[in-house]
Amino acid sequence: MAGGGKLFGLAATALKSNFTSLQKPYKLNFCMTYLCQSRCMICSIWQMKPQGELTIDEIRSFTKKNNSFRWVNLTGGEPFLRSDIVEVARAFVENCKDLYVVTTPTNSLCDLKMVERKIRDILELGVPRYIMTVSLDGHRELHDKLRGIPGNFDKAMENYKMMLGIKKDYPNFDAVFGYTMSRLNLGQFEQTFQSVKKFFPDIEYTDFHINLAQTSSMYYKNGAQSVSPIGEEASMEISQMYSKRKRLLDPMHLIEDAFMRKLITFAKSGKPPMKSRGLDASLYLDSWGNVYPSIMWDKKIGNIRDVDYDLANLWHTPIAEEVRKEIMDGKEPVEWTACEAHQSLVGNLVQML
Ligand code: SF4
């Protein structure tokens, strides 16, 4: 199926999820590795020394048995610390025939020549869309402080420049900056944007994605920290940024636009705008094969290693049904992150519009 057909397939599945439960999830958030060389103040993943993560053979088995994914977020840790990232992407592209989009964040701390080679290799696999997010939480001084790495801001600029070069060769590739708003950088977005503009005069607000810092004991390992910027100030800051964004007709942009609109109200009230589609449209798979309804919810429903890598063996167990009931009853943890919100939006179209 060509890119247009796969986009249509993704849209049709998302539409269907408005009216009925899906038999199989179409969106996967997969943490390829918890390895990370950053030193972020809002996340403790970097303190882990992960061992026994899923091997490439296990990932291949998983993708062969679970090939319904149309949208895969290959995240980390730092994804490019996984030396076989191209093979991981290949497993999804080759086995998930309807795959439309792959997304990957990066902290810009790996060797950029290696990163460029691997991005180009992934694009050569023929995925219809590949979107990279370059993490950037502030202007030079602030970003380096929040990330605990001197020079990280300049590396991020270098990385983005490299990605603009790739974009010229591959129209299906895109790169945006990912800004995580927390209590520690509240009120600093505009200054950050202007500092990037000095490097890239054509940069637009549309080239930035904003997430709010949130807590997750099993993912960010920051359960005890209070990093959330929820409140009037955060809401205003996002609203100002949103008003400067271009309106584009691209489907991924339209979803991002809707995410931002809801983020403004979420930032103010702290109340999720709609129910999650976890364990229906999507799931979170950690680096050891544990399956959760979402990145934020420490409610493990099983491990793919225990069920021959076949999600079907976990999807309708009593614990999975219990989680779905909790979602219906509004008992899931408060969250509104892009990883989870995008499928909630397209699965709740009436509320999205
Ligand atoms: S936020 Fe990202 S870059 Fe920072 S420690 Fe966590 S995984 Fe690493």
Description:
With 353 residues, this protein is α/β, with parallel strands linked by helices. The chain has a single domain (3-352), classed as TIM Barrel (Alpha-Beta Barrel). 40% of the residues lie in helices and 14% in strands. It contains 13 helices and nine strands. Helix 3 (85-95) links the parallel strand 2 (71-76) and strand 3. The model has no long low-confidence stretch (mean pLDDT 89). Iron/sulfur cluster binds next to loops. Iron/sulfur cluster is lined by residues 36, 38, 40, 43, 45-46, 76-78, 107, 135.
Features:
alpha/beta, 40% helix, globular, binds iron/sulfur cluster, 13 helices, TIM Barrel, 353 residues, 9-stranded mixed beta sheet
Secondary-structure blueprint of this entry?
Blueprint: H1 3-16, E1 27-33, H2 56-65, E2 71-76, H3 85-95, E3 101-106, H4 112-124, E4 129-135, H5 140-147, H6 152-169, E5 173-181, H7 189-197, E6 208-212, H8 232-243, H9 251-269, E7 282-285, E8 290-292, E9 302-303, H10 312-315, H11 318-328, H12 338-346, H13 349-352
Bound molecules: iron/sulfur cluster.
Iron/sulfur cluster (SF4) binds near residues 45 and 78.
Give a brief rundown of this model.
The protein contains 13 helices and nine strands. It is an alpha/beta fold and 353 residues long. The protein has a single domain (3-352), classed as TIM Barrel (Alpha-Beta Barrel).
